[in-house]
Amino acid sequence: MDRYSEITNKNQREIVLLKGFPCVWGKCSFCDYIEDNGTQEDEMNRLNEQVLANITGKYKVLEVINSGSCFELPKATLWRIREIIKEKGIEKLFLESHWCYKNRLQEMRDFFGIPIIFKIGVETFDYTFRNEFLNKNAKFQDYKELKQYFDSPCMMVGIKGQAKEMIERDMAIVEANFDHATVNVYVNNTTAIKRDEELVTWFVEKYAYLDKDPRFEVLYNNTDFGVGD
Q: What pTM value is reported for the model?
């Protein structure tokens, strides 16, 4: 599995995929990403140290992801990230967190001491689809509530059960209200949730212009950031 990469087309940065403890929620109906979690803290720290050793600081921006929230990374790993930030002159950090940690985000901002762009897996602003079909347990009511805590929503498109109107509404909200967002085109995995090829084709054609918008990153495959497998 690739765990270090450079994102060079938009928002240039280095990115690392680290191992963390099990996701605090871990029940999203579409997610098998959590299989990358671990429980052996020493082993996780050793692996994470090897991955973090690749960071050069060349872009002054770093993104750290794991199969869950940044709060589930081992403490020793978090301390090592902080050391590297200082050693390499990192000036901005991208982290991701589940909604349940919304009241703890400032802890990370204080700990790292540099600006943080906090991502969150929203998938859709349709409350029912998000929480009942996708089982996200992210029970905010609208984008205004989300923006009180998070900077960058991660959206998902191309799932059987979604409608074009739902995606159009989601994209309209994101484009009008956020300076950064990631759009994930759904790829079949080991879960029962399936990809809607017709919906994907429609989205790719209708929203091709997003590829040229510096605010938004569209991932057509899970590994488009260069990490994962």
A: 0.95
